[in-house]
Amino acid sequence: MLRAGAATLEDADILIDGERIAAVEARLPRAPDHEEIDARGFLVLPGLINAHTHAHNNLLRGLAGRWTLENLLNHAQALNANRTPEDQYLSAAIGAVEMLKTGCTAAYDLFMAAPAPTPEGVEAVTRAYADVGMRAVIAPAVGDLVFFETVPDLYDLLPKPLRQVVEAIRPSPTAGLLELSETTIRRWHGADGGRTRVALAPTIPTQCTDEFLAGCGKLARDYGVGLHTHLSESKTQTVAAARRWGKTSVARLDELGMLNPGFTGAHGVWLTDDDIARLGAAGASIAHNPASNLRLGSGIAPVREMLDRGVTVGMGTDGSMSSDNQNLFEAMRLAALLGNVRFPADDARWLEAADVWHMATEGSARALGLAADVGAIAPGRKADLVLLRADSVFLRPLNDALNALVYRETGADVDTVLVDGRIVLRGGRALNVDEERLRARAEEAANAVRARNADAWTLAEQLAPYIGEACRAAAAVPFPVNRYAAPLPRPA
Q1: Measured on CA atoms in the order 261, 265, 268, 270, is the torsion positive or negative?
Q2: What is the pLDDT of residues 134-152, one digit of tens each?
């Protein structure tokens, strides 16, 4: 067992009383009326926590090519429009099953739809997590500006026919999105016995009016819920923020009073030193998504600098359209390796296995607003536990437990998972849903969504070359930091 804050394994019994851990001791007395789970031959771990994902991505994953973040967003209508609540349920459910099977018990989910989520869609996503048995913070991600307007100089590059098509796209109304967000909080915050919570998600600061950002901040304060946004993820976003506000997104959010311990920014690749200092001073969190940052070519996040300035860093997979899977073991390995190349030969600045393990457990717990409940095996914490086969080919010989878990384990040897003291996965199989039927239904739904959105896909492919040209120009704009693994390109 890996106890809270410990870096080594210990032999111990765990007493669960209802949904919480009552005691952790070497040899607890066995009460005859207690159900016993024989954990001999297993490592008992705190459930991993996914600090940033997207339920809607699972249904059409595998379609992304050589896409930047902006080209992924360009395909949003083709990927996310014309979905039924059943489509949304299936997409969320298959992702939740994948997370459980790789040792993840809780997720911060920024669910999206095109043009915007509906109450029926939100209900479907929350029901999917409840049915599978996962803990989740649901934050419908929305913005009240049209994405294409936020890509610097894109309209100037478009041929007239394409520009007319794009200019005809209307944004979702600000008041309606705030109403949706408030309704979501009122209806589903604390649902499923408290395993479902709700947060606010103005999707990307530059895709939101200041009115909408301020409105989200007020709702978060009024209802005491978290706020999560994609923060300085790409160089294009960074350039867009500088042009709009004359400052970074972090500085503008700080002016709006949105930075606090309930704030989580996803990615944080292009944060400046001043941004990191502001986030640290505010007690805010960053959800690190190394697989997505690599897949989309966004850059290498300054994780070491964040930790040094007191920023809480959690671990995320991001959505399966941008990282291909929901496996936090893979995310941990990438996070542990990726930062090394930023500090050549300066190994004192490299992340250690303990740093990365903390991100995927207690760091993510804090990002979800659940620091007192999950992320560790300790009395008083929720009984969200993972039993990993100790004879895993990836673990043996077990010379160093944390190194083995962070660098070698893949999640393939997860056997049993408990959430709130309930067994939801046993023998590697989800107990609450029929996995085979779920996947078959998802396959049918994916085929139908692709067929319905064929015209939108054609339009996205027509726009893609111009999106690429705009992003290459933005990448060449001078900026105080460079997060690419290469010198900035020269301006055209």
Answers
A1: negative
A2: 999 999 999 999 999 999 9
Domain boundary assignment for the chain: 15-26+39-475
**230 within 8 A of 204, measured Cβ to Cβ:** yes
SS3 29: coil
- What's the mean pLDDT in 156-173? 96
Other CB atoms closer than 10 Å to residue 3's CB: what's the count?
Answer: 17
What global pTM score does this model have?
0.96
Q: What CATH number does the domain located at 15-26+39-475 have? A: 3.20.20.140
Q: Which of 186, 265, 257 is nearest to 227 (CA)?
A: 265
- Residue 160, amino acid: K
The b/e string for 385-417 (b: 16+ C-beta within 10 A; e otherwise) is bbbbbbebebbeeeeebbbbbbbbbebebbbbb
Torsions phi, psi of 128, nearest 5? -60, -45
Task: Count CB atoms within 10 A of the CB of residue 182.
Answer: 17
Reply yes or no on whether the pLDDT at 9 is more than 90.
Answer: no
Residue 365 parent element (H or E): helix 364-367
- Amino acid residing at 245: W
Question: Under DSSP, is residue 455 helix (H, G, I), strand (E, B) or coil?
Answer: helix
DSSP bridge pairs for 230: 266
